[in-house]
Amino acid sequence: MPQPTRSLYVIQHTDGEFLGLIEDHLEGRGIRFTYMRPHVVGGALPATVGFTDGMFLLGGGPWGSAGGQDLPALEAEIALTKACLERRVPVIGIGLGAQILAIASGGGTQKTGLSFTIGEAHRVLDHALNGFLPERFPIAVYMRDWPVPPDSARVLAEDENGRPALFQTNSNCFGFVGHPGVKLAMIEDLIMEFEETPPDLEAGLDGLRAAQTPIADSLVPIMTGLIQVTGLMQPKR
Question: What is the rounded distance in angstroms from the CA atom of residue 94 to the CA atom of residue 219?
């Protein structure tokens, strides 16, 4: 007897940023997802997390969470994420989404300016993502502010400056500072969507163009491990 299809909420904060390359990995596993767009006229957050098997919180372009230029729906999204944590619903936060996950988990955020960097993260726990997290993988960060995970979190990877690049809270919630499935067109759309842009924009775009294949290659084991640890392919109870 076929198992019921899993379904996820995906919270967008900008017109330009979406799941990107992650979409193919979810669709290939028969996992459905619904985009929620609280930033648009008539848009709203889910009223409850009782009808979802997991949630993605996407990045926010120039929106942050540390008091400089906060996301308008920040408090509501923190409350929604806390509800997921209480119900043991998987949450994957990306960029600003990772900041929201850090705050909801009892951590915080560090105030920084808007930046766009292409770097490399290195794994600090060998068994991270059931052993599927690559030892080194590219990270494309287009973000204001930086997540500070709570002491109870496990840092799975760090960037070149020793800051958390991927962390885990609960047993099934993960915060990525960079978008692991980013596409060049997403960043180009962000640049056109907002008046504020980060410094060294051309260098960032050149770096992202060069990193597109390594990003796609790294996403394969990342998604394999992520799906396993979050239990999104396990039969529903």
Answer: 14
- Cα distances (Å, whole numbers) of residue 64 to 59, 74, 86, 97, 187: 9, 9, 24, 10, 17
Residue 223: which of 25, 70, 7 has the closest Cα?
25
Is residue 1 domain-resident? no
Asked, for residue 54, whether it belongs to a domain, the answer is yes
Q: Quick one: how far is CA 134 from the chain centroid?
A: 17
Using alpha carbons only, how large is the chain's radius of gyration in Å?
A: 16
Number of domains in the chain: 1
Report the CATH number that the domain containing residue 145 is assigned in CATH: 3.40.50.880
pLDDT tens sequence for the chain (237 residues) = 445 578 999 999 999 999 999 999 999 999 999 999 999 878 888 887 777 899 999 999 999 999 999 999 999 999 999 999 999 999 999 999 999 999 999 999 999 999 999 999 999 999 999 999 999 999 999 999 999 999 999 999 999 999 999 999 999 999 999 999 999 999 999 999 999 999 989 999 999 999 999 999 999 999 999 999 999 877 665
By three-state DSSP, how is residue 52 classified?
coil
CA nearest neighbour of 49 among 36, 31, 64, 63? 36
206 contacts: CB under 8 Å, gap ≥ 6: none
Contact 90, 231 (CB under 8 A): yes
Containing domain of residue 139, as a range? 7-228
Residue 237 lies in a domain: no
Residue 33 lies in a domain: yes
